[in-house]
Design brief:
alpha/beta, Hypothetical Protein Tm841, Chain: A,domain 3, 2 domains, four-stranded parallel sheet, globular, DegV family protein, DegV, DegV_domain_contain, lipid-binding
Length: about 350
């Protein structure tokens, strides 16, 4: 439901972990690792994690979440390259936020590319060395990047079975699918079940976003059906969405203030249409963190039955196309098997 107000102290969203994260951390703490010794007879058997999960940095997973689940090989995030001028940076390998922001502000050349098949091959082989029996590899929409194709090429080179999944989305919408896959794997599910659980979650996850300008999307060729807005780009502030893996126009609004207000209304209506207690929100930004925090606080007031939105900077590989000042909201549902 999105009706009654919530109290926000100091105008900032309170720090609260989504229930799925808490469930997963507790679950992982109880699991035997693939190479762990067999428990004694009177010890209850825990699920054995057989499936590792691989994704790319477009999933926008929180750094602390990634670090919690990569140490034992159950999760790997392959960095996506961003080229600023003649320099190539790897998301997660290099601190490129300031460099990218300056490049976008000055109009310098910014390009992105897919990871190489060799990077995915190394991730799959690492999972095999950790003792996993299969891999589910979840990637940015193939309508926006050739990353899934690179993953398929790598999958054909290794002996460990790999299920490559085109998420048909981006950002934490993809990330929520990855989290769902990690949750399902932690519950002892086989690769096909892990893939199915993640796909069902991603199918029910929506991306809504506002950009002050369509210029970066135009330069990167990712504008898709939103190209119809270019003729009036100076007169409107577009609200966009990701649908069928593509960026599509949702509404045309006359001012930035009204665009953000309308974005909030769209998100609140979506949240209200979902099962009570299962909704999840994430807010992305780039170069405008205070705006994102204010947006998240307002959404928290509008949707008090939903956990506080997670706030994070848009990954460089996505910010390179969305540009400075982007505000994106992801609406999804719980990742727990019982949710």
């Amino acid at each position: 439901m999105c009706r009654r107000p919530a109290i926000i102290f100091g105008g900032r969203v309170p720090e609260r972990e989504p229930p799925a994260w808490i469930w997963l951390k507790e679950r992982v703490a109880r699991l035997r690792q693939p190479t762990a010794p067999v428990p004694v007879a009177d010890e209850p058997l825990a699920a054995v994690v057989r499936t590792a999960v691989v994704t790319d940095s477009a999933a926008a997973l929180p750094a602390d979440w990634v670090s919690a689940f990569t140490a034992d090989g159950r999760l790997a995030v392959v960095p996506m390259p961003v080229m600023v001028g003649s320099e190539i940076y790897g998301e997660g390998e290099d601190d490129i936020t300031q460099t990218l922001a300056l490049a976008l502000a000055s109009g310098a050349s910014v390009k992105t590319s897919r990871p190489s098949p060799g990077q995915f091959e190394q991730a799959y082989l690492a999972a095999q060395r950790h003792g996993f029996e299969s891999v589910v590899s979840i990637h940015i929409s193939s309508e926006l990047s050739g990353t899934a194709d690179a993953a398929r090429l790598a999958a054909a080179r290794v002996t460990i079975p790999v299920e490559v999944v085109d998420s048909r989305t981006v950002g934490m919408a993809q990330g929520m699918g990855v989290q769902s896959a990690v949750v399902a794997a932690a519950d002892g599910q086989e690769a096909a079940e892990v893939r199915g659980f993640a796909e069902r979650r991603m199918e029910r996850t929506k991306v809504y976003f506002y950009v002050p300008s369509l210029e970066q999307l135009r330069r990167g060729g990712r504008i898709g059906a939103a190209a119809s807005l270019l003729g009036t780009v100076l007169a409107i502030k577009p609200i966009l969405a990701v649908d069928g893996g593509k960026i599509v126009p949702l509404e045309k609004v006359r001012s930035a203030v009204r665009a953000v207000a309308r974005l909030e209304e769209i998100v609140a209506a979506d949240v209200a249409s979902r099962p009570a207690g299962q909704q999840r929100l994430a807010v992305h930004h780039f170069g405008n963190q205070l705006e994102a925090e204010a947006l998240a606080a307002r959404l928290n007031e509008m949707c008090p039955d939903c956990p506080a939105p997670q706030i994070s900077a848009l990954p460089a590989v996505l910010a390179a196309h969305a540009g400075l000042g982007v505000l994106a909201v992801i609406v999804g549902e719980s990742s727990t098997p019982t949710g």
